[in-house]
Design a protein that fits this description.
The protein has 174 residues and is mainly alpha-helical. It is elongated and about 65 Å long.
Length: 174
Amino acid sequence: MLFMNDQYLSAYRKGAERLYRILFFLCVTGFSVLLILLFTNVVSRNFFRNSFAWIDEVSKFIFTWVMFIGISLCIHKKGLIGMEFLTSKLPAKIRYGIQTISTSISSVFFLVLTIYGIKYVFATAGMFSPVLNINYGIVYLCIPICGAASLFFCSSEFIKNKNLKKESAGGKAT
């Protein structure tokens, strides 16, 4: 069913790592640009008594992208709030069951987020921001991207859990 041979599993893991690196780069770059823009606006407002309206607008959009990309990064690195302190004390079979249920629920959530995110992008594609005239469809494209990337990372977790179960049952270690 979800078992993969070593060649495909290795390619899948490499793909997950590449996707993680790309998203990490985008997140770090976006956050750096966000800090520079906000610092510029604070200095401009306090020293020159002039604030830039476009910086406020761009900052909101960049923050939205960084937040959603950060969710995907946390899913990959298991950085979201979890029950690790409880599950680490449990036997392997129960821990595997809880991880499978948790990953299943997360996968369903991210599938719904992806589907409705796509619908939201199309619904907002004809609207434009007031100051810079940026298409809101582009701004909210981060929602389905986050959902799809997180779904990919959840499926990677499923594969890893299945292989761990296979290993613990006496199968070939991968």
